[in-house]
Design brief:
The protein is an alpha/beta fold. 30% of the residues lie in helices and 22% in strands.
Amino acid sequence: MRHRRKQWQTDILEKDWPFYFKNPSLLSGQWNDNHYEAVHVEIGSGKGQYIVEMAKLYPNKLFIGIEMMPLIGSYILKKLSVENLNNVRIIIDNADNIKEWFEAGEIDVIHLNFSDPWPKKSHAKRRLTYPTYLNVYKHLLKNHGQIHQKTDNIGFFEYSVEQLSQNKFVCLDFSADFRRNDHPEDAETEYEERFMGFNQPIYRAVWSYSHD
C-alpha cells in the first residue's frame, strides 16, 4: 500500500536544518571540519534510531546518515529537530551517488544495517555488498577503515561474507547471534528491535580494508 506524505513531512523536508545537507557534493573533503575522532557513515538510516543513538554514545565522532526515501528520511529530521546533537549530518538521496559526496579516504567506518537483501539472483547487483559497491567503499575508506554489517537475513549475510572475503577485506569480528550478549557499545536499529522481539538472531561482522 502506498502511503501519502503528511504535511509535517513536507514542511520538515523543505526547512533548512543545520544537520540536513541537500547538496552533499559541496562538502566533499570537508565533512570533518571540526576534527572529530572519526567519520562514520550509515547507508540506509531508516527512521534514524541507530545514528541518533550512536551520536549520543560517541559525541567525539561524526555520524553521517544516508537515507534514500524522503518520506522515511523525514523521520530522522524530526528526531534531530528535538535533540541537541552537533555530531550528526543527514543526506536524503540515493547512495549510488556516494562517490560524489566524499573524497577518497575520507571515511573511517561504513555501517550497513539491515540492508535490503535483494534475495533474487537477478537482483544481486543491487545488494550493498555486491563487488561494485565494495570497490566504492575501498575508495572512500581510510587505510584500515572498516565496514560494520548487521542483518537478520542469513542468506544475505553468507553472500556478504563471501564477497567481502573475495575482495580483500579482513574479518575482525563475526557473530551469528550478536544480541545473545549485551553490547552497550552498539545501538539498536528499529528493525533490530523488531527482529529481537521475534527471537531472531542478529548476524554481525566487522571488516577492515588495507590500501597497503
